[in-house]
Structure formats: structure tokens, C-alpha cells
Design a protein that fits this description.
about 0% strand, disordered C terminus, 22 helices
């Protein structure tokens, strides 16, 4: 296209864009005089966008996902609109377009990148009940009612525990088939031979940890006790193997200590907070509607809460806005999480200012700060991390910690199999910090991690905030904020 033709098109833009603000039109004209727009249909998409805003009586700062959806009638048209807004109207928030973008990306992947699904084969899948020995099948109803096979009442199992027991017995059935393939005949009644085969199968064939093996044997104990199939020798054999596995699992603990030592050698707890701030800074440089920006803000929030409150990964996954975490009108986020493991509330109360600032940034993305209360109302009952009804995958936090905090030389064959950093180890580091700085407040750390009774709550509220550990973490957070020029600091109120 010649320079004169682009100039003519630039001069004609105001007539084509009657609803677009003059300052935006002027920027588009300047661009067009120098070069073509980066996407076809950009001018039409911009006109449609501003016309819909005007019809809805909304300023650009209050653009809704519905407007993006109405304008983005195709993936290419939506991309042209987003490119135009970013280039010529950067004050318009792009975050409301996130869900629309994800829908179009999913459509594209389903249409062009679909791969045939491979059936997922679980390495721990046991034989179905119909293929168990008859005596085991006959004993299955005993899991669902109170029984007294040896005089003492055994209550019905909870659904989750029952499923674990059935899974373990199914694996036991598989181990008999495996043993048969090795030329070893194995009885179907509880006996030292049966349990020895199962132990070898778990450790050699399935390569489970000692701790996992111990858990499987505990489930077998629950099953055969209720079935009334134990004799003195078989029960003693099962308890002996369970004890040996538990002791071996304890011997593996040095691996945990080595991982903690490796972390302390290269990092400190403040580095987790540094990474949280860095993740938010990286997200602010990306288009707010992109999945990459969302993932970075999820990381920032998860890391800050992990150090601030010591929440378990499973509890973080399901935390909801307005329930487990809420925001006061004065800008302070408060924590009221009921733990999935203990059922008790932690009641951490007010979160650190830096954590509050990261939560605000996560909720707002690129929206103006004055929209925070509207956003809180919009997100009531939503998952904190995804800002939707969905939850992140179960191991999200550990995978991000592993990627962000390399403890060993990954090129070393020996180091490649060492334990990686996990949220559980960060929680351990928090307790260690408190133990060393204020041992008399260790009970408060135990409450924070869900290990004490609710009756300590009032003392926890008044005393724990003054421990040396939390004061040190507060100082670290202030240093981080200062090093970032104060850009992430919550405003003084």
C-alpha cells in the first residue's frame, strides 16, 4: 500500500469511528500514516467496542466481559480489538476479556490441536471386587455396618476410608496374581505368606515408599479385622510388617532434613516473599487477560499466604472470597480459614500489608484501584486463586515451588531424585523459625498449623502477632517493598 493511500485512509478514520474518543482516533491516525494496523478489522472492532460501551452507558474503566464477548464474534476479531486497545487505549482494562479469550483458545485447541485421548492406566489399580477370592467378597458388607468379630465393636467406615480399604484389598488380590507369575503360590487367607508377598509386590513391583506401604497394610488390618478372618499368627505377621515399614519410613526422614538444609543453604523464607513480589511485577508487564498473567498472580498470592498464614495446599486450593478470605472497607484482608484436615478455624485475622496488596492486585488485574469494592462483590463465593467456580489442580503449589527454588544440581543423576521443596517444608521452616526465635510461643505455631485446640484462640490473637518470628517476617516484607520502590505497598489509611 502506498503512502498516499494510507494517508487517505487515516484522514477518513474519524468518519468511520464516530463513537471512538478523539484522542484514540488521533493515535490510530498517526499510526496508520506510518504503517498499516497490525490486524485486519481493527478499526471496525474499535468502533463496535466503543459504540457498545456508549449504548450501555459505561465508561471504559467499567467495561464488562459481556461487551468483549459481543464484539469478539470471532477469535481474530477479538484479538484485533485487544491489540487495538493495548496500542491506542491502554487505560481500558483488558482483564474482563480473560474468560472470552480462554473460550476462543479452547475452541481453537479443540478444533485444530485435538489429540486422541490415551486411556489412563493407574499404576495402583487393583482387581475389582468381582475378581476377589470369595471369602473377601463375602466380607465386604462388614465395612458398612457395626460388627463385633472379636467381641469389640468396629464402626462402619467413612466413604473415603472405605474406598481406600477397597483399593488396598484390590491391590492385595493383584499381588497374588503377580506372585503366581513368579512361580510362588500364595493363599487367599490372611497369613504371613500372603502379607510377605504383598510387601514385596508393593516395594519391588510398584516401588511405593515405606510410608505408603505402611498405609496399605493399615487398610488391610481394617478389612480383615471386620471380616473376622484373622488368627493370632496372621495378625501378628501383619503388625510386624506394618511396624517394620513405619520404622523404615522414619529412617527416610533425613531426606527431609537434607532438603530443609539445602533450602537454608541457598534461600531463606524472605526469598519466597521476594518471589511473590517478583511474580506480581512480571504479571503487570503482561496483558491482563492472558493465562500467563493469571498464573503469575496466583503464584504471588499463594506464596504470600503460605508464608503469612502457613496454610495447607489443599486449604489454599479451596479458599473462597467472602468466606475464608475477606476484605474490609479499609483495605485490610482478613483470614478465617477452616482447615480441611482438622476442621478447626485458624482465625489469623488481619493479613500483612504486603499480602493485602498482592491480593488486591490479583483481584483487580489491570482495573483501576477504585473498582476494588465492586470486584469483591462480583467475586463473592468465588475461588480465591482462579476467581471462578473452579479450583487449581492438587499439586499446583509444590510444582511452582519446585520450579522457582532449585535446591540441587538438576544435571546430577544423584540430585535429580532427591526430595524437592514443598509447601509442607515451608510450613516446617516457619515452625523452626518460631522455635528458634520464641520457643515459648511454639504452641501458637502449632495452632496456626492446625495442631491444637480451638480454646487457645484468644491468647493466639493477642500474643502470636508479637513473636520475634512474625516481626522478622514483617521486616523482610517491608524491605522487599522498599526494594521495589514501594509500588506494591498498600496505601496508608
Amino acid at each position: 500500500m502506498t503512502l498516499s493511500s494510507r494517508t487517505r485512509r487515516a484522514d477518513a478514520l474519524p468518519k468511520r469511528l464516530p463513537d471512538v474518543p478523539p484522542v484514540v482516533v488521533a493515535g490510530m491516525q498517526d499510526h496508520l500514516r506510518a504503517q498499516d494496523f497490525p490486524a485486519r478489522g481493527m478499526a471496525a472492532a474499535m468502533q463496535d467496542f466503543y459504540a457498545r460501551l456508549q449504548a450501555a452507558g459505561l465508561p471504559p474503566e467499567l467495561v464488562t466481559p459481556e461487551i468483549y464477548d459481543a464484539v469478539g464474534t470471532s477469535r481474530s476479531r477479538l484479538r484485533a480489538l485487544l491489540a487495538g486497545l493495548r496500542a491506542f487505549a491502554p487505560e481500558v482494562p483488558l482483564a474482563p476479556a480473560a474468560e472470552v479469550t480462554r473460550c476462543w483458545d479452547a475452541w481453537l485447541n479443540a478444533r485444530y490441536n485435538a489429540k486422541p485421548r490415551k486411556p489412563r492406566v493407574s499404576r495402583l489399580k487393583g482387581l475389582p471386587v468381582a475378581e476377589w477370592p470369595e471369602a473377601w467378597q463375602a466380607a465386604l458388607p462388614a465395612l458398612d455396618r457395626t460388627v463385633r468379630p472379636y467381641g469389640n465393636p468396629l464402626r462402619p467406615l467413612e466413604p473415603k476410608t472405605r474406598a481406600g480399604v477397597v483399593s488396598a484389598v484390590g491391590l492385595l488380590a493383584v499381588s497374588r496374581t503377580w506372585a503366581d507369575g513368579q512361580g510362588v503360590s500364595c493363599p487367599d487367607t490372611p497369613s504371613p505368606d500372603l502379607f510377605e508377598v504383598f510387601e514385596r509386590y508393593l516395594l519391588l513391583e510398584r516401588e511405593v515408599s515405606y510410608r505408603t506401604g505402611s498405609d496399605y497394610f493399615e487398610r488391610l488390618r481394617m478389612f480383615f479385622l471386620r471380616a473376622g478372618l484373622f488368627d493370632r499368627d496372621s495378625l501378628a505377621a501383619l503388625e510386624e510388617i506394618t511396624g517394620a515399614l513405619t520404622e523404615a519410613a522414619g529412617d527416610e526422614e533425613p531426606g527431609k532434613r537434607a532438603t530443609l538444609h539445602a533450602f537454608r543453604r541457598r534461600f531463606q523464607l524472605g526469598d519466597v516473599l521476594h518471589r511473590a513480589m517478583d511474580a506480581e511485577a512480571e504479571a503487570s508487564l503482561l496483558l491482563a487477560h492472558t493465562t500467563a498473567a493469571l498464573r503469575l498472580r496466583q503464584t504471588a498470592v499463594a506464596y504470600a499466604l503460605l508464608v503469612n498464614t502457613g496454610d495447607r495446599q489443599g486449604d489454599l486450593r479451596h479458599a473462597r472470597i467472602g468466606h475464608e478470605l475477606g476484605r474490609d472497607t479499609d483495605g485490610i484482608w482478613r483470614h478465617d480459614l477452616r482447615q480441611g484436615k482438622t476442621g478447626g478455624r485458624k482465625e489469623m485475622e488481619a493479613l500483612w500489608p504486603g499480602t493485602c496488596a498482592l491480593l488486591d492486585a490479583h483481584v483487580l488485574a489491570d482495573r483501576p484501584a477504585w473498582r476494588i469494592e465492586d470486584r469483591m462483590a462480583e467475586l463473592e463465593d468465588m475461588n480465591l486463586l482462579t476467581l471462578s467456580d473452579a479450583a487449581l489442580h492438587k499439586n499446583f503449589l509444590n510444582r511452582r515451588l519446585e520450579a522457582d527454588f532449585q535446591l540441587y544440581d538438576e544435571s546430577s543423576a544423584e540430585d535429580a531424585h532427591r526430595p524437592k521443596l514443598t509447601g509442607h517444608l515451608i510450613r516446617t521452616l516457619i515452625v523452626d523459625t518460631i522455635r528458634r526465635s520464641r520457643p515459648d510461643a511454639l504452641w501458637a505455631a502449632q495452632y496456626m498449623l492446625g495442631h491444637t485446640e480451638r480454646t487457645m484462640q484468644e491468647s493466639y490473637r493477642t500474643d502470636f502477632a508479637e513473636t520475634a518470628a512474625v516481626q522478622a517476617m514483617d521486616r523482610q516484607l517491608r524491605e522487599i517493598e522498599d526494594s521495589n520502590g514501594g509500588g506494591n505497598r498498600a496505601p496508608d489509611r
